[in-house]
Amino acid sequence: MLDRSPNSAQSYLTAPLSRRASIAVDVGGVIVGGGAPVVVQSMTNTDTADIDATVAQVAALNRAGSEIVRITVDRPESAAAVPRIRERLDRLGIDVPLVGDFHYIGHTLLADHPDCAAALAKYRINPGNVGFKDKRDRQFTQIIEQAIRYDKPVRIGVNWGSLDQELLTRLMDENQAKGSPMTAREVTREAIIQSALLSAELAEEIGLPRNRIILSAKVSQVQDLIAVNLELALRTNHALHLGLTEAGMGSKGIVASSAAMGIVLQQGVGDTIRISLTPEPNGDRTREVIVAQELLQTMGFRQFLPVVAACPGCGRTTSTVFQELAQTIEGDLRRNMPVWRDRYPGVENLQVAVMGCIVNGPGESKHADIGISLPGTGESPAAPVFIDGKKAKTLRGPNIAQDFQALVADYIEQRFGRSA
Protein backbone atom coordinates (compact mmCIF):
# COMPACT_ATOMS: atom_id res chain seq x y z
CA MET A 1 0.00 0.00 0.00
CA LEU A 2 1.03 3.61 -0.45
CA ASP A 3 2.56 6.02 2.04
CA ARG A 4 -0.31 8.24 3.13
CA SER A 5 1.65 10.53 5.41
CA PRO A 6 1.06 14.29 4.98
CA ASN A 7 4.35 14.54 3.09
CA SER A 8 3.45 11.81 0.65
CA ALA A 9 3.11 12.91 -2.96
CA GLN A 10 0.16 10.57 -3.31
CA SER A 11 -2.96 10.26 -1.20
CA TYR A 12 -6.00 8.05 -1.09
CA LEU A 13 -7.81 10.74 -3.08
CA THR A 14 -5.55 10.18 -6.06
CA ALA A 15 -6.85 7.80 -8.74
CA PRO A 16 -5.74 5.33 -9.69
CA LEU A 17 -3.57 4.14 -6.84
CA SER A 18 -0.71 1.68 -7.23
CA ARG A 19 -1.82 -1.93 -7.25
CA ARG A 20 -1.32 -4.38 -4.41
CA ALA A 21 1.46 -6.85 -5.15
CA SER A 22 -0.22 -10.18 -5.86
CA ILE A 23 0.87 -13.44 -7.43
CA ALA A 24 0.19 -13.60 -11.18
CA VAL A 25 -2.06 -16.42 -12.37
CA ASP A 26 -2.32 -17.48 -16.02
CA VAL A 27 -5.94 -18.27 -16.87
CA GLY A 28 -5.92 -19.63 -20.41
CA GLY A 29 -3.55 -16.91 -21.59
CA VAL A 30 -5.18 -14.10 -19.58
CA ILE A 31 -2.98 -12.91 -16.72
CA VAL A 32 -4.79 -12.21 -13.45
CA GLY A 33 -2.76 -10.42 -10.78
CA GLY A 34 0.94 -9.69 -10.72
CA GLY A 35 0.37 -6.08 -11.68
CA ALA A 36 -1.57 -6.96 -14.86
CA PRO A 37 -4.59 -4.77 -15.70
CA VAL A 38 -7.75 -5.65 -13.79
CA VAL A 39 -9.54 -8.34 -15.80
CA VAL A 40 -13.26 -8.19 -16.63
CA GLN A 41 -15.18 -11.42 -16.42
CA SER A 42 -18.79 -12.55 -16.56
CA MET A 43 -20.93 -15.67 -16.37
CA THR A 44 -23.50 -17.24 -18.64
CA ASN A 45 -27.04 -17.94 -17.45
CA THR A 46 -27.81 -20.54 -20.10
CA ASP A 47 -28.17 -24.25 -19.48
CA THR A 48 -24.64 -25.37 -20.33
CA ALA A 49 -26.04 -28.59 -21.78
CA ASP A 50 -27.70 -26.38 -24.41
CA ILE A 51 -24.61 -26.01 -26.57
CA ASP A 52 -26.09 -23.59 -29.12
CA ALA A 53 -27.41 -21.18 -26.49
CA THR A 54 -24.23 -21.30 -24.43
CA VAL A 55 -21.92 -20.74 -27.38
CA ALA A 56 -24.07 -17.80 -28.50
CA GLN A 57 -24.01 -16.19 -25.06
CA VAL A 58 -20.29 -16.75 -24.50
CA ALA A 59 -19.63 -15.17 -27.90
CA ALA A 60 -21.85 -12.19 -27.06
CA LEU A 61 -20.18 -11.68 -23.68
CA ASN A 62 -16.75 -11.87 -25.25
CA ARG A 63 -17.68 -9.41 -28.01
CA ALA A 64 -18.90 -7.04 -25.31
CA GLY A 65 -15.49 -7.26 -23.66
CA SER A 66 -15.58 -10.12 -21.17
CA GLU A 67 -12.04 -11.47 -20.99
CA ILE A 68 -12.98 -14.60 -19.02
CA VAL A 69 -16.38 -16.32 -19.06
CA ARG A 70 -17.66 -18.71 -16.40
CA ILE A 71 -20.16 -21.44 -17.20
CA THR A 72 -22.15 -23.71 -14.89
CA VAL A 73 -21.06 -27.34 -14.74
CA ASP A 74 -23.66 -28.90 -12.49
CA ARG A 75 -24.45 -32.33 -13.93
CA PRO A 76 -23.08 -34.92 -16.37
CA GLU A 77 -24.89 -33.41 -19.36
CA SER A 78 -23.27 -30.05 -18.72
CA ALA A 79 -19.83 -31.58 -18.27
CA ALA A 80 -20.21 -33.55 -21.51
CA ALA A 81 -21.13 -30.35 -23.37
CA VAL A 82 -18.07 -28.36 -22.27
CA PRO A 83 -15.53 -29.76 -24.78
CA ARG A 84 -18.05 -29.32 -27.60
CA ILE A 85 -18.64 -25.72 -26.54
CA ARG A 86 -14.89 -25.12 -26.51
CA GLU A 87 -14.54 -26.65 -29.99
CA ARG A 88 -17.36 -24.52 -31.39
CA LEU A 89 -15.89 -21.35 -29.93
CA ASP A 90 -12.46 -22.19 -31.32
CA ARG A 91 -13.95 -22.67 -34.79
CA LEU A 92 -15.52 -19.23 -34.48
CA GLY A 93 -12.16 -17.74 -33.57
CA ILE A 94 -13.27 -16.98 -29.99
CA ASP A 95 -10.44 -17.92 -27.65
CA VAL A 96 -11.91 -16.53 -24.43
CA PRO A 97 -11.00 -18.75 -21.44
CA LEU A 98 -13.88 -20.80 -20.01
CA VAL A 99 -14.17 -21.33 -16.26
CA GLY A 100 -16.17 -24.24 -14.90
CA ASP A 101 -18.37 -23.40 -11.92
CA PHE A 102 -18.61 -26.48 -9.68
CA HIS A 103 -20.76 -27.10 -6.63
CA TYR A 104 -21.44 -30.26 -4.62
CA ILE A 105 -20.29 -32.85 -7.22
CA GLY A 106 -17.36 -31.18 -8.95
CA HIS A 107 -14.99 -33.95 -7.89
CA THR A 108 -17.18 -36.53 -9.63
CA LEU A 109 -17.78 -34.52 -12.78
CA LEU A 110 -14.10 -33.75 -13.32
CA ALA A 111 -13.11 -37.38 -12.76
CA ASP A 112 -15.84 -38.81 -15.00
CA HIS A 113 -15.39 -36.27 -17.81
CA PRO A 114 -11.68 -35.80 -18.53
CA ASP A 115 -12.40 -33.93 -21.77
CA CYS A 116 -14.30 -31.37 -19.71
CA ALA A 117 -11.45 -31.10 -17.22
CA ALA A 118 -9.00 -30.51 -20.07
CA ALA A 119 -11.17 -28.04 -22.00
CA LEU A 120 -11.74 -25.63 -19.12
CA ALA A 121 -9.19 -22.90 -18.43
CA LYS A 122 -9.95 -22.75 -14.71
CA TYR A 123 -12.07 -24.45 -12.07
CA ARG A 124 -14.16 -22.50 -9.56
CA ILE A 125 -14.96 -24.33 -6.34
CA ASN A 126 -16.85 -23.27 -3.23
CA PRO A 127 -15.36 -24.56 0.03
CA GLY A 128 -18.79 -24.18 1.63
CA ASN A 129 -20.36 -26.92 -0.47
CA VAL A 130 -17.50 -28.92 -1.96
CA GLY A 131 -18.33 -31.60 0.58
CA PHE A 132 -19.69 -31.94 4.09
CA LYS A 133 -18.22 -33.33 7.32
CA ASP A 134 -15.70 -36.11 6.66
CA LYS A 135 -16.21 -35.84 2.89
CA ARG A 136 -15.19 -32.20 2.64
CA ASP A 137 -11.40 -32.50 2.64
CA ARG A 138 -11.46 -35.69 0.57
CA GLN A 139 -13.61 -34.21 -2.20
CA PHE A 140 -11.75 -30.91 -2.11
CA THR A 141 -8.52 -32.88 -2.52
CA GLN A 142 -9.93 -34.76 -5.51
CA ILE A 143 -10.72 -31.51 -7.31
CA ILE A 144 -7.30 -30.03 -6.55
CA GLU A 145 -5.63 -33.20 -7.80
CA GLN A 146 -7.53 -32.86 -11.10
CA ALA A 147 -6.35 -29.24 -11.35
CA ILE A 148 -2.77 -30.38 -10.80
CA ARG A 149 -3.15 -33.19 -13.34
CA TYR A 150 -4.42 -30.85 -16.07
CA ASP A 151 -2.34 -27.85 -14.95
CA LYS A 152 -5.37 -25.66 -14.34
CA PRO A 153 -5.72 -22.75 -11.93
CA VAL A 154 -8.48 -22.82 -9.34
CA ARG A 155 -10.59 -20.04 -7.90
CA ILE A 156 -11.52 -20.79 -4.33
CA GLY A 157 -14.71 -18.80 -4.10
CA VAL A 158 -16.22 -18.31 -0.66
CA ASN A 159 -19.80 -17.03 -0.57
CA TRP A 160 -21.52 -16.06 2.64
CA GLY A 161 -24.74 -17.57 1.36
CA SER A 162 -23.09 -21.00 1.43
CA LEU A 163 -20.47 -20.51 4.11
CA ASP A 164 -18.88 -23.51 5.84
CA GLN A 165 -21.23 -23.88 8.82
CA GLU A 166 -18.81 -25.93 10.89
CA LEU A 167 -16.19 -23.21 10.65
CA LEU A 168 -18.74 -20.49 11.37
CA THR A 169 -20.12 -22.35 14.41
CA ARG A 170 -16.64 -22.90 15.83
CA LEU A 171 -15.72 -19.24 15.45
CA MET A 172 -19.04 -18.17 17.00
CA ASP A 173 -18.40 -20.42 20.00
CA GLU A 174 -14.83 -19.14 20.41
CA ASN A 175 -16.05 -15.59 20.13
CA GLN A 176 -18.71 -16.11 22.77
CA ALA A 177 -16.07 -17.31 25.21
CA LYS A 178 -14.09 -14.09 24.87
CA GLY A 179 -14.43 -11.30 27.37
CA SER A 180 -15.10 -8.73 24.64
CA PRO A 181 -16.70 -10.67 21.82
CA MET A 182 -17.12 -9.41 18.29
CA THR A 183 -20.54 -8.94 16.75
CA ALA A 184 -22.08 -11.81 14.80
CA ARG A 185 -21.48 -9.85 11.60
CA GLU A 186 -17.80 -9.44 12.40
CA VAL A 187 -17.47 -13.14 13.17
CA THR A 188 -19.13 -13.99 9.87
CA ARG A 189 -16.66 -11.77 8.04
CA GLU A 190 -13.79 -13.52 9.81
CA ALA A 191 -15.24 -16.92 8.89
CA ILE A 192 -15.34 -15.91 5.21
CA ILE A 193 -11.70 -14.84 5.32
CA GLN A 194 -10.55 -17.93 7.17
CA SER A 195 -12.47 -20.21 4.82
CA ALA A 196 -10.60 -18.75 1.86
CA LEU A 197 -7.19 -18.82 3.52
CA LEU A 198 -7.51 -22.29 5.03
CA SER A 199 -8.72 -23.71 1.71
CA ALA A 200 -5.83 -22.09 -0.15
CA GLU A 201 -3.41 -23.49 2.42
CA LEU A 202 -4.84 -26.98 1.97
CA ALA A 203 -4.64 -26.67 -1.83
CA GLU A 204 -0.97 -25.76 -1.58
CA GLU A 205 -0.31 -28.66 0.80
CA ILE A 206 -1.88 -31.00 -1.78
CA GLY A 207 0.53 -29.63 -4.38
CA LEU A 208 -1.25 -26.84 -6.26
CA PRO A 209 1.24 -23.99 -6.74
CA ARG A 210 0.36 -20.59 -5.32
CA ASN A 211 0.45 -19.14 -8.83
CA ARG A 212 -2.47 -21.40 -9.73
CA ILE A 213 -4.80 -20.10 -7.00
CA ILE A 214 -7.21 -17.15 -7.06
CA LEU A 215 -9.34 -16.28 -4.03
CA SER A 216 -12.69 -14.55 -3.79
CA ALA A 217 -14.91 -13.60 -0.87
CA LYS A 218 -18.42 -12.82 -2.08
CA VAL A 219 -21.00 -11.01 0.05
CA SER A 220 -24.13 -9.04 -0.83
CA GLN A 221 -23.68 -5.92 1.32
CA VAL A 222 -21.40 -3.05 0.34
CA GLN A 223 -19.71 -2.51 3.70
CA ASP A 224 -19.09 -6.24 4.13
CA LEU A 225 -17.42 -6.51 0.72
CA ILE A 226 -15.14 -3.61 1.53
CA ALA A 227 -14.19 -4.89 4.97
CA VAL A 228 -13.68 -8.52 3.96
CA ASN A 229 -11.59 -7.88 0.87
CA LEU A 230 -9.36 -5.21 2.38
CA GLU A 231 -8.65 -7.52 5.32
CA LEU A 232 -8.10 -10.51 3.03
CA ALA A 233 -5.60 -8.47 1.03
CA LEU A 234 -3.60 -7.81 4.20
CA ARG A 235 -3.31 -11.52 4.98
CA THR A 236 -2.37 -13.00 1.62
CA ASN A 237 -0.71 -12.21 -1.69
CA HIS A 238 -3.01 -14.50 -3.67
CA ALA A 239 -4.69 -12.89 -6.66
CA LEU A 240 -8.18 -11.70 -5.69
CA HIS A 241 -11.45 -11.75 -7.62
CA LEU A 242 -13.99 -9.07 -6.62
CA GLY A 243 -17.73 -9.25 -6.90
CA LEU A 244 -20.81 -8.19 -4.97
CA THR A 245 -22.97 -11.28 -5.10
CA GLU A 246 -26.75 -10.93 -5.41
CA ALA A 247 -26.18 -7.23 -6.15
CA GLY A 248 -29.67 -6.86 -7.56
CA MET A 249 -31.34 -5.54 -10.67
CA GLY A 250 -30.89 -2.37 -12.69
CA SER A 251 -29.56 0.81 -11.12
CA LYS A 252 -29.57 -0.69 -7.62
CA GLY A 253 -27.19 -3.47 -8.64
CA ILE A 254 -25.00 -1.10 -10.62
CA VAL A 255 -24.72 1.46 -7.83
CA ALA A 256 -24.10 -1.13 -5.10
CA SER A 257 -21.43 -2.98 -7.11
CA SER A 258 -19.70 0.22 -8.18
CA ALA A 259 -19.73 1.72 -4.69
CA ALA A 260 -18.28 -1.41 -3.09
CA MET A 261 -15.72 -2.37 -5.70
CA GLY A 262 -14.75 1.22 -6.43
CA ILE A 263 -13.54 1.70 -2.87
CA VAL A 264 -11.66 -1.61 -2.82
CA LEU A 265 -10.07 -0.99 -6.21
CA GLN A 266 -9.07 2.50 -5.10
CA GLN A 267 -7.02 0.89 -2.35
CA GLY A 268 -5.11 -1.10 -4.96
CA VAL A 269 -6.94 -4.35 -4.16
CA GLY A 270 -8.56 -6.59 -6.78
CA ASP A 271 -7.18 -8.36 -9.83
CA THR A 272 -10.35 -9.36 -11.66
CA ILE A 273 -13.97 -8.27 -11.27
CA ARG A 274 -17.49 -9.30 -12.14
CA ILE A 275 -20.61 -7.15 -11.88
CA SER A 276 -23.31 -9.64 -10.87
CA LEU A 277 -26.47 -7.97 -12.17
CA THR A 278 -29.85 -9.63 -12.13
CA PRO A 279 -30.99 -9.21 -15.74
CA GLU A 280 -34.44 -8.00 -16.67
CA PRO A 281 -36.68 -10.81 -18.02
CA ASN A 282 -35.16 -11.70 -21.41
CA GLY A 283 -32.66 -8.90 -20.79
CA ASP A 284 -29.21 -8.50 -22.29
CA ARG A 285 -26.59 -10.42 -20.28
CA THR A 286 -23.82 -8.25 -21.70
CA ARG A 287 -24.98 -5.34 -19.54
CA GLU A 288 -22.84 -6.61 -16.67
CA VAL A 289 -19.75 -6.55 -18.88
CA ILE A 290 -20.40 -2.98 -19.99
CA VAL A 291 -20.85 -1.83 -16.39
CA ALA A 292 -17.59 -3.52 -15.33
CA GLN A 293 -15.73 -1.81 -18.15
CA GLU A 294 -17.30 1.53 -17.34
CA LEU A 295 -16.33 1.19 -13.68
CA LEU A 296 -12.68 0.48 -14.50
CA GLN A 297 -12.54 3.15 -17.19
CA THR A 298 -14.26 5.81 -15.09
CA MET A 299 -11.78 5.20 -12.28
CA GLY A 300 -8.86 5.46 -14.68
CA PHE A 301 -7.61 1.88 -14.35
CA ARG A 302 -8.25 0.81 -17.94
CA GLN A 303 -9.38 2.23 -21.27
CA PHE A 304 -11.88 0.13 -23.23
CA LEU A 305 -13.86 2.59 -25.34
CA PRO A 306 -13.65 6.17 -26.56
CA VAL A 307 -15.16 8.59 -24.06
CA VAL A 308 -18.24 10.53 -25.14
CA ALA A 309 -18.78 13.60 -22.98
CA ALA A 310 -22.33 14.97 -23.11
CA CYS A 311 -24.06 17.60 -21.02
CA PRO A 312 -27.06 16.58 -18.87
CA GLY A 313 -29.35 19.12 -20.46
CA CYS A 314 -31.30 21.97 -18.85
CA GLY A 315 -33.84 24.65 -19.77
CA ARG A 316 -31.40 25.97 -22.36
CA THR A 317 -31.40 22.65 -24.23
CA THR A 318 -35.01 21.90 -25.07
CA SER A 319 -33.99 20.12 -28.28
CA THR A 320 -33.29 16.40 -28.02
CA VAL A 321 -30.84 16.50 -30.93
CA PHE A 322 -27.72 16.48 -28.70
CA GLN A 323 -29.12 13.60 -26.64
CA GLU A 324 -29.89 11.53 -29.73
CA LEU A 325 -26.51 12.36 -31.28
CA ALA A 326 -24.60 11.44 -28.12
CA GLN A 327 -26.51 8.16 -27.93
CA THR A 328 -25.87 7.40 -31.59
CA ILE A 329 -22.16 8.21 -31.42
CA GLU A 330 -21.68 6.12 -28.27
CA GLY A 331 -23.62 3.23 -29.78
CA ASP A 332 -21.59 3.35 -32.99
CA LEU A 333 -18.32 3.37 -31.07
CA ARG A 334 -19.27 0.40 -28.88
CA ARG A 335 -20.67 -1.56 -31.83
CA ASN A 336 -17.57 -1.01 -33.95
CA MET A 337 -14.92 -1.50 -31.27
CA PRO A 338 -14.44 -5.28 -31.81
CA VAL A 339 -13.27 -4.47 -35.36
CA TRP A 340 -11.69 -1.12 -34.64
CA ARG A 341 -9.35 -2.51 -31.96
CA ASP A 342 -7.40 -4.18 -34.77
CA ARG A 343 -7.99 -1.65 -37.52
CA TYR A 344 -7.35 1.49 -35.47
CA PRO A 345 -4.80 0.88 -32.69
CA GLY A 346 -5.30 3.38 -29.88
CA VAL A 347 -8.85 4.35 -30.87
CA GLU A 348 -10.04 3.46 -27.36
CA ASN A 349 -8.32 6.66 -26.18
CA LEU A 350 -10.48 8.88 -28.40
CA GLN A 351 -12.48 11.61 -26.63
CA VAL A 352 -15.65 12.99 -28.20
CA ALA A 353 -17.85 15.80 -26.88
CA VAL A 354 -21.51 16.31 -27.80
CA MET A 355 -22.82 19.41 -26.08
CA GLY A 356 -26.26 21.05 -26.12
CA CYS A 357 -25.64 24.79 -25.89
CA ILE A 358 -23.00 27.53 -25.85
CA VAL A 359 -22.47 27.70 -22.07
CA ASN A 360 -19.98 24.83 -21.76
CA GLY A 361 -20.21 23.50 -25.30
CA PRO A 362 -17.24 25.22 -26.94
CA GLY A 363 -14.96 24.76 -23.92
CA GLU A 364 -15.78 21.06 -23.49
CA SER A 365 -15.42 20.51 -27.23
CA LYS A 366 -11.95 22.06 -27.18
CA HIS A 367 -10.88 19.65 -24.44
CA ALA A 368 -12.01 16.67 -26.54
CA ASP A 369 -10.29 15.31 -29.64
CA ILE A 370 -13.39 16.17 -31.63
CA GLY A 371 -16.46 17.91 -30.30
CA ILE A 372 -19.61 19.70 -31.33
CA SER A 373 -21.68 22.37 -29.62
CA LEU A 374 -25.25 22.09 -30.82
CA PRO A 375 -27.55 25.12 -30.67
CA GLY A 376 -29.58 25.54 -27.50
CA THR A 377 -32.91 27.24 -27.05
CA GLY A 378 -32.91 30.61 -28.77
CA GLU A 379 -29.40 30.18 -30.18
CA SER A 380 -28.46 30.56 -33.82
CA PRO A 381 -29.03 27.23 -35.66
CA ALA A 382 -25.29 26.70 -36.06
CA ALA A 383 -23.06 24.02 -34.54
CA PRO A 384 -19.33 24.75 -34.29
CA VAL A 385 -17.08 21.68 -34.50
CA PHE A 386 -13.71 21.62 -32.74
CA ILE A 387 -10.95 19.21 -33.75
CA ASP A 388 -7.79 18.88 -31.64
CA GLY A 389 -8.72 21.99 -29.70
CA LYS A 390 -9.32 24.25 -32.68
CA LYS A 391 -12.51 25.28 -34.41
CA ALA A 392 -12.59 23.35 -37.66
CA LYS A 393 -15.96 24.23 -39.17
CA THR A 394 -19.55 25.13 -38.43
CA LEU A 395 -22.37 22.79 -39.35
CA ARG A 396 -25.80 24.06 -40.33
CA GLY A 397 -29.02 22.71 -41.73
CA PRO A 398 -31.15 19.64 -41.05
CA ASN A 399 -28.30 17.11 -41.29
CA ILE A 400 -26.03 18.37 -38.48
CA ALA A 401 -26.09 15.02 -36.67
CA GLN A 402 -25.23 12.95 -39.75
CA ASP A 403 -22.56 15.43 -40.81
CA PHE A 404 -20.88 15.24 -37.40
CA GLN A 405 -20.97 11.44 -37.45
CA ALA A 406 -19.13 11.54 -40.77
CA LEU A 407 -16.53 13.91 -39.30
CA VAL A 408 -15.96 11.53 -36.37
CA ALA A 409 -15.46 8.61 -38.78
CA ASP A 410 -13.02 10.65 -40.86
CA TYR A 411 -11.11 11.73 -37.75
CA ILE A 412 -10.72 8.14 -36.58
CA GLU A 413 -9.43 7.05 -39.98
CA GLN A 414 -6.96 9.92 -40.24
CA ARG A 415 -5.63 9.69 -36.69
CA PHE A 416 -5.74 5.99 -35.93
CA GLY A 417 -5.59 4.35 -39.35
CA ARG A 418 -2.53 2.13 -39.82
CA SER A 419 -1.24 4.43 -42.55
CA ALA A 420 -1.61 7.45 -40.29
Briefly characterize the structure.
By secondary structure, the protein is an alpha/beta fold. Helices cover 44% and strands 17% of the residues.
List its salient traits.
420 residues, alpha/beta, TIM Barrel, Sulfite Reductase Hemoprotein, domain 1, eight-stranded parallel β-barrel, five-stranded mixed β-sheet, 17 strands, 44% helix, disordered N terminus, NO2/SO3_Rdtase_4Fe4S_sf, IspG_C
The domain count comes to 2
* H/E series: EEEHEHEHHEHEHHEHEEHEEHEHEHEEEH
CATH architecture designation of the largest domain: Alpha-Beta Barrel
Determine the CATH superfamily of the largest domain.
Dihydropteroate synthase-like
Work out the helicity level: 40-55%
Q: How would the global form be characterised? A: elongated
Rg value? 25 Å
Strand content: 15-25%
Mean pLDDT: 91
> Helix tally?
13
Low-confidence stretches: 1-16
* Alpha-beta classification: alpha/beta
CATH fold topology of the largest domain: TIM Barrel
- Main beta sheet strand tally, sense and closure: 8 strands, parallel, barrel
Number of strands: 17
CATH class designation of the largest domain: Alpha Beta
Distance between the termini: 41 Å
Structure description:
- The chain is elongated.
- The N terminus is likely disordered.
- It contains 13 helices and 17 strands.
- α1 links the parallel β3 and β4.
- 44% of the residues lie in helices and 17% in strands.
- The chain has two domains: 275 residues, Alpha-Beta Barrel (TIM Barrel), CATH 3.20.20.20; 111 residues, Sulfite Reductase Hemoprotein, domain 1.
- By secondary structure, it is α/β, with parallel strands linked by helices.
- An eight-stranded parallel β-barrel has the order 3-4-5-6-7-8-9-11, surrounded by five helices. It has a five-stranded mixed beta sheet with strand order 13-14-15-16-17, sandwiched between helices.
- It starts with 24 loop residues before the first strand and ends with a helix.
- α8 packs parallel to α9.
- One of its GO terms (biological process) is terpenoid biosynthetic process.
- One of its GO terms (molecular function) is 4-hydroxy-3-methylbut-2-enyl-diphosphate synthase activity (flavodoxin).
